[in-house]
Amino acid sequence: LLDSCAKIDKLVEKAKKLNMPALALTDHGNMFGALNFEHLCHVNGINPIVGCEFYSTEDHSIQKPTKYGSKYYHLILLCENETGYKNMCWLNSNAYTDENSLYYGKPRIDFEMLKERHEGLICLTACIAGELPQILMHDKEEVAEEFVKRYSELFGPDHFYIELQDHGLQEQKELNPKLIALAKKMNIPLVVTNDIHYIEKEDAEAQDVLRCIGFKKLLNEPHQTMGDGRTEWYFKTEEEMRALFPNVPEAFENTVKIANMCNLTIHQYKTQELKECLPRFELPKEFQTHGDDYSKNQDDYVRHIVEKGLLMRYGKITPEIRQRAEYELGIIFKMGFSGYFLVVWEFINWAKEHGIPIGPGRGSGAGSLVAYTMTITDIDPFKYTLIFERFLIIASQLRKQSFPIDLIFL
User: Fold this and answer.
1) pLDDT at 408 over 50
2) Is residue 391's pLDDT more than 80?
3) Up-side HSE of residue 378: CA atoms within 13 Å toward CB?
4) Of 196, 211, 223, 323, which alpha carbon lies 20 to 30 A from 400's?
5) Cα(371)–Cα(347) distance, rounded to whole angstroms?
6) What confidence category does residue 407 fall into, taking pLDDT thresholds of 50, 70 and 90?
7) What are the phi and psi torsion angles at 117 (to 5°)?
8) H or E segment to which residue 123 belongs
C-alpha cells in the first residue's frame, strides 16, 4: 500500500505487449491482489506466478530488531502449485494474527514457520533488504554460507535461488559480485529479477508522490526516495534486463525455469460453496425449532431481528414498509443469504458495543431495508428513495462470475 503506482491490469497489459509468457506479483507482506492478478493473467494468456515479498526475522515471537539493526528482512516466496498457495496463505494469516509478528507494524515470519509450511513454495533471497544481502553487506561470509545451506536444504533442489537486482544503486553494484561468488561456491542457482514499482520510466515522479503520501511528507521536504536509481524501478524489457548482467546468462534462463515450474489456478468459489464455508452463526436455542434445517432456523432469527428493528426505526409500520420488508426477506431467504446477514450483523453490533466507529453504510447495501432494520446500516432507504435491486444485481453478478462475495455493507 502506497508503495507502487503500478495497477494489476496495467502490469498484465505491459507483459502481454512485451510477449512475456509469465508475470509474478510479490507485494510486500500481503496477497491482497493475488486473486485479481491470477484471473487477469489467465484471461490474457499469461502464466501467473503468485507470490509475496514476506517480512522475515530471526524469531517472530520476540519483539526486537534483527541482528543487523533493521526491523525485518525481506524474503520472496512463489507458489509452485495449489499446495504452495495454501501454505503461503497460512504464512500470511499467521503473520497478521500474531501480536509479536506485528510488533514493528509489519506481518513477520521466521524460519521455524517456513519449516512448517514450505512445501510447494519456491524461495528467492530478495532485494538488498533480504537477510542474505544484509549478511554479505556486513562482510559475514561464513554466516552467509550457513544461511544458504539452511535454506537450500529446507526448500530442496530447484526451489531456492540467490537473487540478483540492479536498479543503479551503489549498494547493489557492491553486493552483486559477492552474491555471484557465493552462488558459485555453494552451487546455488542464480536468478535475475526486477522490482517494479511503476510501469513506465516516466512514472517515477508519480511514484515519488505516492511515497510522500505514505510518509506524510511534502515533495519539497526531505523524504525517503527510491535512491540513486529512482527512475529504474519500472517494467523493463528482456533486452534491458539482459544488458544488466551479461556475465551470468544462466540467471536469465532460470527465470523461465521458475515460471515453467509454477502452475497455479486459484479456485473461485461459487455462491453455494461460499455459503457452505461461511462461519456458522450460533443461534439462540429458542430459534432452533426446525431441527437440523439450519437454513430455516436462520431465516426465523433474521425475521425476528427485522421485526424488532422495524418498530425501533419506524414505530408505526405502514403497508408500504411492510410490503418492502416482506419482499426483501423473501429474496434473502430464497438466495440463502440469512447466515451472511447474521454474520455481518454480529460483528457490526460487536464493534458498536466496544466503541469502534462504524460508518452509516455505503454502496448497494445501503439500499436494503433489512440491513437498516438490523442496524447494519444507518441509512433509511425510504427517506432517500434507495432501491434493494442494486444489492441484488451485485449479488447475482458475483454468483454468475463465481467470485467470492465481499462484505458488501462495508
Assistant:
1) no
2) no
3) 7
4) 323
5) 13
6) very low
7) -135, 70
8) strand 121-124
Contact 365, 376 (CB under 8 A): yes
pLDDT at residue number 395: 59
If you average pLDDT over residues 323-330, what whole number do you get?
A: 94
Beta-bridge partners for 22: 47
Compute the distance between CA of residue 349 and CA of residue 118 in angstroms, rounded to an integer. Answer: 39
228/313: higher pLDDT: 313
State how far the Cα of 89 lies from the Cα of 92, in Å rounded to an integer.
5
Task: For residue 167, give the DSSP letter.
Answer: S
CB within 8 A of 11, min separation 6: which ones?
A: 23, 25, 37, 196, 199, 235
Grid cell at residue 28: 510486500
Where do the H-state alpha helices sit in 262-293? 271-277
Taking phi over 0 as left and psi of -120 to 50 as alpha, with beta for the rest, 24 belongs to: beta
Which run of H or of E encompasses 170? helix 170-186
- Tell me the three cell numbers of residue 110: 521466521
The set of cell numbers assigned to 109 is 515470519
Single out the residue of 343, 342, 347, 348 nearest to residue 302, CA to CA.
342
Instruction: Using CA atoms of 139, 140, 142, 145 in order, give the dihedral in degrees to the nearest 10.
Output: -90
HSE-up (13 A, CA, CB side) for residue 207 = 24
Global pTM value: 0.75
- The alpha helices in 6-118, defined as continuous H runs, are 8-17, 34-43, 82-97, 111-116
From the list 46, 53, 15, the residue with the least C-alpha distance to 32 is 53
pLDDT band at 404 (very low <50, low <70, confident <90, very high): very low
Grid cell for residue 165? 537486482
Question: What pLDDT score does 409 carry?
Answer: 43
State pLDDT tens for residues 131-171. 999 999 999 999 999 999 999 999 999 999 999 999 999 99
